[in-house]
Prior knowledge:
The chain is an alpha/beta fold.
Amino acid sequence: MNRKDQQRIDPSKIKKVLLIRLRRIGDVILTTPAVSALRKAFPSALISYIVEEPYKELVEGNPCLNNVYVLKKKQNSKDFLKFIRQIRKEKVDVVIDFHSGPRASLITLFSGAKLKIGYRIKYRNFIYDVKLSRSSERGPIHSVENHINLVKALGISVDPSFPVSVPEAKKEEAEKVEKIIRENEFKGHSIITIHISAGNEFRDWGADNWIQMTNLLAQQPEVRIVLVGAEEDKKAEEEILKKSKAAILSLVGRLNLRELREVISHSSLFVGPDSGPMHIAATTSTPIVALFGPTLPANFAPWKAKATLIEKNLDCRPCKQRTCIHDDFRCLKTIKPEEVYAACLHFI
Length: 348
């Protein structure tokens, strides 16, 4: 921070803080160490968090938060202005925008906060009183560290050692998972939870690779395989179940985010691409084998987790995941099932 920014901040006057992180699972989870650090620094402050509707389960019940505001993923201008008015009534002292996307920056701009902190983004820099870069001349910065740096911008000392977190499953959610384990006679076996997709083709390893992978895992008699994924992964699920020779339980499209965490926490291993579920796995003590394609572990590795990361050192990595210059997604597709299986054997 420059001298002007330092003079603007008086931590003793901070009573209300608003945090913003829109979009996806991993994005929200990677803010939670910063949330914990903020609560430790301001134990009596009122801390609120704005999240989009599909991902509210990731923060509702977080003991570090007083309020969670849920923003609809799509809404008209009238409803958005109504939401802004609701935020302005809170009269917050500080907004920390962990996102700095178009809607998040608009909320920040019209929040009425005395101090606005966010990332340095072209055409939106004027919105923030304090703005930090996501990158460094020294090399890549992990997303968690970037978020913690925004908290540090309040002029306080911050403990960077906090883990990522997701609220515990509700009683009925935990009982649902226990029932699944009991009815499928998983007790005493090694449950391997496999996330079969990652939301886009750049991080999709492909059904054929997962079929080979499940067949390899089936060689281990103590292993029980569980597939997880979203509703849009049903096509891949169907192909895997049809062609794999392994005995598989599929929970694709059958779990909410807290239930997914509960399943992973009962597992001996989580396997999947760099994705939201991988970051959910990092909130548990379950080891992880993660496949990295267009993204770099230096930015998005599972935070403070016991993990083996598999990647290919290609000149085209990282990419913005808009166009594959080779048209074959080789960064991920050239990872062989045998490589992933060998990594799994260390944890089984």
